[in-house]
């Protein structure tokens, strides 16, 4: 059974995820940086750094949210970055941020379903995602769509939470995720479900080698996995 934000609601995981992010959109950036002690900024820099050699001209950022990874992607000097997300609330925050930074000529944000992308096959030299694939209703379908829109030889870079396995980080991580994070998340965002869903969805996500197997299954080559910060987060890369 899929992990969903609102267990008593009848909607699909996709609709519940959109509702959840609409609910917390105004506080999302602050909570991201606060609850990760700013490490999320380093993780995004590390992920985009893996695109430096290939210099992609067009980048698609899946589940772009408020656009932080799309903005970071400008470091590799692409012609255009396109971000899509199912949450209009998150996109509104992202568009305002991009406008204030004077980046609207380089970044476009669209409403879209990551599992049914509105783009033609072989459209992008790179596809990125930060903390988004975990929220897919159908993970394999979403990854297959990323594969479809990527040009042959193009690269995906996926940043996602993972589960530390070594003592004592595993125990500390589990305690923080289950006991500390939901409390702060509820107080600041006013949505208890959002920050209860986070640790549950991370726990259910097939991370590490299991995720590489799914990337292999949908057709990606040279699949690689790089744990960050004691395994709290991981970067996955692959080539079409």
UniProtKB/TrEMBL annotation:
It catalyses: a 2-demethylmenaquinol + S-adenosyl-L-methionine = a menaquinol + S-adenosyl-L-homocysteine + H(+). Keywords: Menaquinone biosynthesis, Methyltransferase, S-adenosyl-L-methionine, Transferase. Methyltransferase required for the conversion of demethylmenaquinol (DMKH2) to menaquinol (MKH2). It holds the Pfam family Ubie_methyltran. This is Demethylmenaquinone methyltransferase. The keyword Methyltransferase applies. One of its GO terms (biological process) is menaquinone biosynthetic process. Its EC number is 2.1.1.163. S-adenosyl-L-methionine binds at residues 66, 85, 113-114. CDD domains: AdoMet_MTases. The lineage of its organism: Bacteria, Pseudomonadati, Bacteroidota, Cytophagia, Cytophagales. One of its GO terms (molecular function) is demethylmenaquinone methyltransferase activity. It is an enzyme of class 2 (transferase). PANTHER family: 2-METHOXY-6-POLYPRENYL-1,4-BENZOQUINOL METHYLASE, MITOCHONDRIAL, METHYLTRANSFERASE.
């Amino acid at each position: 059974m899929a992990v969903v934000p609102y267990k008593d609601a009848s909607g699909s995981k996709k609709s519940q995820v959109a509702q959840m992010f609409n609910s917390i959109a105004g506080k999302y950036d602050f909570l991201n940086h606060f609850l990760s002690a700013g490490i999320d900024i380093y993780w995004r820099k590390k992920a985009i750094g893996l695109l430096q050699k290939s210099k992609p001209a067009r980048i698609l950022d899946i589940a772009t949210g408020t656009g932080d990874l799309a903005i970071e992607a400008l470091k590799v000097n692409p012609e255009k970055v396109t971000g899509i997300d199912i949450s209009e609330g998150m996109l509104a925050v992202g568009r305002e941020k991009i406008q204030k930074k004077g980046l609207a000529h380089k970044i476009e944000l669209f409403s879209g379903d990551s599992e049914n992308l509105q783009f033609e096959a072989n459209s992008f030299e790179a596809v990125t995602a930060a903390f988004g694939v975990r929220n897919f209703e159908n993970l394999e379908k979403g990854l297959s769509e990323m594969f479809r829109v990527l040009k042959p030889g193009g690269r995906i870079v996926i940043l996602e939470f993972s589960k530390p396995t070594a003592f004592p980080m595993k125990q500390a991580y589990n305690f923080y995720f289950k006991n500390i994070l939901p409390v702060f998340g509820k107080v600041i965002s006013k949505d208890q479900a959002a920050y209860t869903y986070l640790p549950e969805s991370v726990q259910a996500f097939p991370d590490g080698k299991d995720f590489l197997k799914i990337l292999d299954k949908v057709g990606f080559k040279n699949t690689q996995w790089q744990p960050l910060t004691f395994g709290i987060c991981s970067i996955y890369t692959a080539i079409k």
